[in-house]
Amino acid sequence: MAPTQETYDYIICGGGTSGCVIAGRLAEDPNLKILVLEAGPDSADLENVHMVGGWSNNFDSETDWNIITNPMPGVDDRQVKLSRGRFLGGCSGCNGTLCIRGCKQDYDDWGLDGWSGEEFFKCMSKAETFHPKPWLESVEAAHGNSGPIHTEPHDLAPISKRLMDSFISKGMPFEADMFSTGEVSHGCGHVVRTVYKGLRSIAANYITKDHCRDNVTILCNTSVDKVILEPHEGGFLAKGVAAVSTVDNARHTFHATREVIVSGGAYCSPAILLRSGIGPKEDLDKHGIACKVNLPGVGKNLMDHLIVAIFYEAEEGLTTDHLVYHEGAFQKSYAQWKEQKSGFLSSFPFGAFAYARVDDLLANEPAWANAPREEGRDPMGLTPRQPNIELFNTECYGGPKQYNIYPTDKHAFSLIAELFGPRSRGSVTLKSADPLDPPAVDCNYLDDPLDMLVLTEACRFGNEIITEGLGTKDVLKGSWPPELKHHTFKTREEWIPYVKEHATTCYHPGGTCTMGKPENPNAVLDEKLRVRGVSGLRVADCSVMPLLHGGHNQMAAYGIGEKCAEIIKNGN
């Protein structure tokens, strides 16, 4: 575990999406020495990271943080598994590869200097090298062309092309590259993916392969216990990090001459701060941790996007089940990927995507019509420039992990309804002071009744699109698995029991170390990502989001890493 030296200019706590970005950008200055501490293994030889279709095999093992929520009343007291990538590159190595940036208004709503939608979209694009395809009318100005992350559009399966037709027939305008521009809140289009030439492109690329630099030290299998703080000018100064080997439990201390940057993600970053004595005093007292900086917002304000998968059986020839689930199919697909880096396992089986506003759909619902709202915003706090929901499909049978009885002679897909702008808030706390003990997470799903209102409407509307839309209404054969009978649901109320039973995470957590203005008592960070009351300490990952954007977290995590490095380089 011990490196060749113990003192560095910058120590990055977490080699996930944002952490790798920060390390790579800071290392562009050859005079700096950077240390990256990653709790999981190196990803270089993890085939299921680089083979896009192997994503789920990274879960439920040593490459997963294996966090499980507390029971939550809003989802029938169910516990939900919160899988997170625990290896170099983090969730960029096991997510859906989707480059859905959200809308610019999402970031304008943060109200923080330097984080407007226009500014932040440039940060996200900086990560990207986009490889266009002739069939996609892409918006060239929305994409980057010199970043370490290689992206390209996804070739749709027949069922996805039909769904796009259904979206359009049900009043959702087609905007080919809308998920890159941040300007469209109601419409359908294509989603660019972090895949190129049959391989997943991951954050570790910032500090490995073509970007490997001598001034970056990477220590894998090394979990951060806490930040070492010393009294300084009426507050504290971050002087280094205490860490523990996840292989032999050996402990080591590393010193930072400039800064410590915590990039553990929305669950682990607040846990690191709490073990360091930074957080709500009452939470720290429970574990015998001396409170050095009483910040009530640490671990609070947890937000996530809920999804519900709705399953359908389709006619033969439309889905890709025959390439993976039918007899002998996986072996053939695996051989094709090994030999040619092509075929089913070279891409992620998500298809067509749409954003939707639901104001008109819910106009006659008393709970919506009578709910308080700010001028120019709906009851969820969103403007007409922001979507309430997202709808997309799988190109074969698939969804949350409990749906694991696969159709060996059927052809199936799911429509996924996703809630944006959630009002419910959860929390992250410690189970113990042990750094190898995962944190306690309560997502508090569907605690706010408006969340249930919008999510059930998303399911109702999505099912209507599938069963009545021009492209899909005539190709359905029932549902798979057969016990999920829902095609006859016509009202939002009929979907409530289904949502309670099946709603789960889309793996988009944020907000637990939120940025904010000085007058916000729950803000953990300022707009420069600096921890209040501590010099030389920042947090940079999706935990810093004051409000969760209406997109997927991957590009936001890249953008936050790029923004953090930019702030530091500018001397702030």
What does this structure look like?
It is globular, with a radius of gyration of 23 Å. It has a domain at 155-190 and 306-421 and 446-502: Glucose Oxidase, domain 3 (2-Layer Sandwich). Strand 12 (235-245) and strand 13 form a beta hairpin. The model has no long low-confidence stretch (mean pLDDT 96). It is of the alpha/beta class and 572 residues long. The strands form 7 sheets. Strands 1, 2, 10, 11, 12, 13, 24 and 25 form an 8-stranded mixed β-sheet that branches. Strands 7, 16, 17, 18, 19, 22 and 23 form a 7-stranded antiparallel β-sheet that branches. It has helices at 17-26, 47-50, 104-108, 117-126, 158-169, 178-181, 265-275, 281-285, 329-340, 366-369, 449-468, 496-502, 553-569; strands spanning 7-13, 34-37, 67-68, 81-82, 128-130, 149-151, 187-189, 195-196, 199-200, 216-219, 222-232, 235-245, 251-262, 278-279, 293-294, 306-314, 350-356, 389-394, 412-419, 427-429, 440-442, 476-478, 504-505, 534-535, 537-539. Helix 1 (17-26) packs parallel to helix 13.
**Low-confidence runs:** none
CATH architecture call of the domain at 155-190 and 306-421 and 446-502: 2-Layer Sandwich
- CATH topology grouping of the domain at 155-190 and 306-421 and 446-502: Glucose Oxidase, domain 3
**Straight-line N-to-C gap:** 32 Å
Shape: globular
Number of helices: 13
| The CATH class of the domain at 155-190 and 306-421 and 446-502 | Alpha Beta
Structural class: alpha/beta
The proportion of strand residues reads 15-25%
Strand element count: 25
